[in-house]
# Entry
Amino acid sequence: VLALQALGQRLLPSVSPPPGLVMNKHNHTLEGPAGHCKLSDSETRLLLAFASAKEQTLERWQVATQMSPGNDTLTQDSMQARLSQLRKKIQQCGGNGDSIKAIRGNGYRFCLPLQVL
# Structure
């Protein structure tokens, strides 16, 4: 029986960490295959909202609310600049391609696997 169990363990593929990004919401860090980076409070809120949203998609007003809660003066240009900064951080961590895509007439979609701790 022990020989069969040992054989079964050798034949099973080894468990590797899930691909994609891992965000720690408590210490505001993002980790990926290429390293880690520190996130701001608004970036952490936004990634949490993407992770919990259906199909990881948010409307523009939802993105603005997460980036600047209680402040209605966030302009489209300001939102684009902050999203660009977040994309750069994601890319530094190893997230390749378009991590956050704009959906014309709707909002934005987070396009990478994201695990939240």
User: Anything to note?
Assistant: The mean pLDDT is 84.
